[in-house]
Amino acid sequence: MSESNTPHNPSNEVERAHDAGALAQADRFADPGVPAHQPRLTDTDPRAAKRAERTVVILFTLSALGTIGSLVAYFAVRPDGTTQGVRLSTLMLGVTLAVSLLGIGFAAIHWAKSLMSNREYIDERHTTATSPEAREVAVIALQQGVEDSGIARRGVLKGAMVGALALFPLTIAVPLISSVGDDWNVSKFRHTLWQKGRRLAYDPDGRLVKATDLTVGSVAHVQPDATEEERRTGEWITEKAKSVVLLVRLNPEDIKSEHRPGASYEGIVAYSKICTHVGCPVALYEQQTHHLLCPCHQSTFDIADGAKVVFGPAKRPLPQLPITVDDEGYLVAEDDFSEPIGPSFWERLK
Description:
It comes from Xylanimonas ulmi. GO terms for molecular function: 2 iron, 2 sulfur cluster binding; metal ion binding; monooxygenase activity; oxidoreductase activity, acting on paired donors, with incorporation or reduction of molecular oxygen. Belongs to the Rieske iron-sulfur protein family. Pfam families: QcrA_N, Rieske. By secondary structure, the protein is an alpha+beta fold. It has two domains: about 40-120 and about 135-175; about 185-335, 3-layer Sandwich (Rieske Iron-sulfur Protein). The protein is about 40% helix and about 10% strand. It contains nine helices and ten strands. The strands form three sheets. Strands 1-2-3-4 form a four-stranded antiparallel sheet, with no helix packed on it. A four-stranded antiparallel sheet has the order 5-6-7-8, with no helix packed on it. The longest helix is centred in the N-terminal third of the chain and has 32 residues, at about 85-115. The protein is elongated, with a radius of gyration of 34 Å. It starts with 9 loop residues before the first helix and ends in a 17-residue tail after the last strand.
């Protein structure tokens, strides 16, 4: 009579007893199954179903009208170079696109909740490999889904849906196609409104900036000084957008490097606000570290060290505006930026 060499382990017996108890406990609970179907009003009242169908058709029609309205707004309400013109154009495009998208979304939701089948079905889990029989079952399920949606017997609803979905891509295609002839001359970004002797003015009120206005740690958003006649021209907004600058006063001892010697004045540095990644406005300044953060993609620049990139996707420093003061103590530009502002592009020399 031989004895087993495997040592007796009481914990194994405890685990087996626990598993058996769990199985016995599970057998005590009956499978609740699928709850009884609760019919909706549209399932029992043909008039309610008809009202729901009309509502969906109206929503799809509103979407189509929104698409047409966006095309009209795109061509008829063009930005005229003024702030009011840009705002009106943006508002009209935003409202009409919202109507177009929301019409499709609300129509789809209302259709699904009120007209499509809301019964619960059970699908048994099968093996991963798909047999010919399973494919036939899938085709039948798809056909059943089409039948449950009611699209085959609701011609008006189907036409409204197809029309809304067919029109919506025009809101994207038309602006893209119409922009083919736009001016893509990137060399325009090599020059801005800044030139020797042009004064710095606060943005947006246009007050001139004196060096004595700024204390160590203070920040100012500035633009080129311009006359009332210049500001009335259509080109002002575009040129101003390229010329916006962030002005910061540092302790002169904290400045490690600049784009060129003497570009700052008594610790006051001026850098382009346009991120060199994709052109977002860089305006979040951290006083203790002298870091400037772009809120779009978190590119971070050290303005005490020539606005070099210390973090993020940007690949080059922010361009620096060389500044000094005139005889009246106002801050003025000594020249334009030494390199193109904004995102890097394929024709940039530096």
